[in-house]
Amino acid sequence: GSGTGTGSNTGTVPAPSPNNDDNVNGSYVGGVAPTNSNSTLYDELTTTYDADSGQAGNMFDVVALKDVIIHEMDVHIVENPTSKISVYTRDGTFEGHEQDSEMWTKRASVIVQGRGVNMATPLPAGALDLVEIMAGTTC
What we know:
Helix content is 0%, strand content 38%. The protein has strands at residues 3-9, 14-16, 24-28, 41-46, 68-76, 82-89, 105-113, 120-122, 131-133.
């Protein structure tokens, strides 16, 4: 998948692996480990805009090492027309629930003007309901 998300946490968030699969590597957002576990970090978790990773939708897991709050999200829209973007979450992994709409909670539904190839298209401020992920859980 492609896109960026901005949030705050009280520790570390693993970055996606370079090959864009569901595994994460040991690096920290921004490449720097926090100096103390009580600090609040505001940073970006970015994935690539690889041409072969596009879909009509993407599903991925976020495993929180510390409490995380996601409050913004950008998407990659290859074309420039307006697009309806919906964001859903669920407690636990997406695996095995790809076709089960009853197990998902809608967090955003908004129409945006795509910015085109290799450009992040932000969801408007306030469009995404806060997504809170507690340490040790998957969302």
